Structure formats: C-alpha cells, structure tokens
# Entry
Amino acid sequence: MSICLLLLILLSSSSAWATDAFTLTKLTPKVLMRKPACVSAPDIRHSSSLMALLRGGEQEVETSPSTFDKLTSVAVVAPLSSFAKFYAHQLKTRPIQTKSVTAGIIFGMSDYFAQTIERNKSDEEKKAIAQSRILTTFLVGLFVFGPAANWWYSTMFKLWPSTTLLPTLIKAFLGQILFGPAFTTIFFAAGMIQSGTFSFMRWINKIKNDLPKVAASGAGFWMPVSFISYKFIPQEWIPLFTNVCSFIWTIYLSTVSNRKIKQ
# Structure
C-alpha cells in the first residue's frame, strides 16, 4: 500500500514537471522572437559614438562641408574679395597714385630680401640691414617706376591697341630695348647716390660693366612677362602684374646695383 502511494506521488510530480516544461517551451520562442523596440537615429549615433569611445576614443567629429566652406569664406575669401574691390576702385579713381605706391612697396620689399640674401652669402661679419637703401629703392619705385610704367603701357596700347601676335611681340621687344635699359641706368644711379659713391664717370663705368649682363638676363625674364601682360592681362591691371613679377627681378637688380664698381 505504501509502495502504491509512493508511485502515485512520483507520477503526479512528474506530470507537473512535464506541464511546466511544455509551458516554458511554448513561451520561449515568443519571447526570443519578439521584435526589439524601435531605436531612434540619435540613439544609434549616440551608441556608436559611445562604442567608439570605449574602443579607444578615436571618434572624429565631422564638420559638414557647408560649415567648412563658410569658415573658409569668412577667413580667406571675404578679405581678399574686399581688398580686390578696394584696389580696383583705387585704380579707377587714382590710377597713377595707386600704381606708384604699389611699385614703391614692392621695390622696398625686394631690396630687403636682396640685403638678406647678400648677408647670408657673405663670409664677413653680418651687417645690419641698411634702412636707407630700402628707402631709396622704395622711392625709386614710387617716383620713377610707377609713373613711368603707367605712361609706357598707356603709350604702347595707344600705338598698338591690338593684342594679336605681331603687335604683342613689338611691344614686348620695345620694352626690352628702350624701357628696360633706361630704367636700369636710373636704378644704378640711385643705388650709387645712396651709397655715396656716385660720380658721372663711375656711373658710366657701372653702365658699361653691368648693363649688358642685366639686359641679357632681362630678356629671358621680361620677354615672357611682357608677352603675357600684353596678350592676356587687362590694360589697367598690367602695372600690378609687372610689379608682382618685378619683386623677383628687383632682388636681382638691387644686388647688381650695389656691387662694387670695377675701376
């Protein structure tokens, strides 16, 4: 009797276990297959940023192209555009003054760099930058080259207004045989006056010794510059273009002008 009672208890407990197991098996797929809750895009970005930080903190902050373009425009383009408009207005209202001041500034800067190069090449004790020499070169650009270049280019375009090949070559050639040598001799004289070594005979010797070399170098430099300026640059902007190109040329010219004269 006791054995039958024990078997009856075991069977009832096993059936209860089977019922619980069936219920769990039936519910588990529903729980596992339940769709996850919708996650918004900000939450996904936040989670990806958090995971990136946990992996090493190398998450980069991206700047939208529109923001970068705006920053570039404000920092670079806007000031340059404003200066270009201001300079163009000055060219129309005060053409000679604007071109002359531009030439003076560029000439002065060129002489400063020329002196720096001379000091670096010299084995002697470094001398201080000669401010009077920079001032002299500035004045030559302001009172000589600026007005003279304005007159020269205006005259060339009056005589040969066309920008075809032959008139362009004629204007460039005349600049090499007339304007260039004439200005170079004046530049030589100004340099000698500044250094206190000017005399008429020394000036003539300087022209004989150095002008042919300068003219030969100038043909290789200024012929392409003149061709480009006459062919492609608007007339009112040619002096500015030549002034920018003359920055390099005046460094060379200033160095030659201040060499010691061979007796």
